[in-house]
Design goal:
With 382 residues, the chain is α/β, with parallel strands linked by helices. The chain has two domains: 217 residues, 3-Layer(aba) Sandwich (Rossmann fold); 141 residues, Rossmann fold. Helices cover 35% and strands 16% of the residues. The chain contains twelve helices and 15 strands. α2 packs across α12. The two termini are 17 Å apart. 44% of the residues are buried. The mean pLDDT is 92.
Length: 382
Amino acid sequence: MAESLMRMPRVFFYVQHLLGIGHIARASRIAGALVRDGFDVTVVTGGLPVPGFPADGIKTVALPPVVASNAGFLGLADSNGVAVDEAFLSRRRDLLLSAFRDCAPDVVVIEAFPFGRRQMRFELLPLLEAVGKAYPRPKLFSSVRDILQQNRKPGRDEETVALVRKHFDGVLVHGDPNFVRLEDTFPLTSDIASKIRYTGMVAAARAAQPEETFDIIASAGGGAVGLDLLRAANAAAAMLPAKLRWLLISGPNLPEADFIGLANTRPGNVTLARFRKDFPSLLRGARASISQAGYNTVGDLLQTDCRAILIPFVAGGETEQTVRAERLKALGLADILPEAGLTPEIVADAVRTALARPREAPVSLDLAGAQKTAAIIRSMTG
């Protein structure tokens, strides 16, 4: 009995990234904060491996990976791009349920679902049922970013509310309500208001000053959908003074042929990299950043005075990044360029404008979401 009281509470944390790396990066930061708070954490990943996530020292169960078969998230494919079949999905589901039983957790955290990741219902609905039947029953939390995809099909929000009410003990909203509130993109928020806990944004710790500096950094997140941004930035560098130092970060998921194409056409003042672990530090030293408006990139930008040029991802009807970019523009913290019709000339003009504008002081939003998430889970499971 004494031994059971002394053991660290176990957390079973499910995360599935399908296209970019934002979901796995945010979940990894939360997992790290939970470990530092004294939890025994097992992270279950369902996407392609991403260097550095989860962090070293965190227990990991890697399911057979699936990715989005297109930018609209309309299907699932394996690591070779082949559409998955029922046998594949059944095997994944069984592996997930086996990992849950082996962990015997006190807490289960599911990233995005039921507000997103409907493609994973084949394994997540059985996981919810397993949680409900377990004895003792673990606490169950949904871990969700502050801005949700809009244009959902009729009935989806009602279904989400029903699942939250039936299964979940809390909804951890990773945002600062002074910046954006869940009801801004989820109209039925009032129906689950008693379960919602705002954590602040899950941002990386404020980075140290960079060991290497660049004037302009163009980054494409995971890289699966950022080729046009990178090509436009690469060509724009040749239109601006050669003394400006550029860094292009392609992301790990940019196809190798496209990476080679950028490498073979880059001007002499452009450095090209697939991934930089010191990205937040590099932003501190940069004068301007060109990027999509993903959650993690914006969290990094908010801790610097780097001028932000945002190109929200809108393919497949995506709306989340546009909402985030427009909020930042309204605060005077970013300029926005359209994804469609992006040209080197447009990017070059935006860089000229950004470099001519005085630097802004870092904004005072709550960026300690990882630590606060751990504290909230601790308070609700003690």
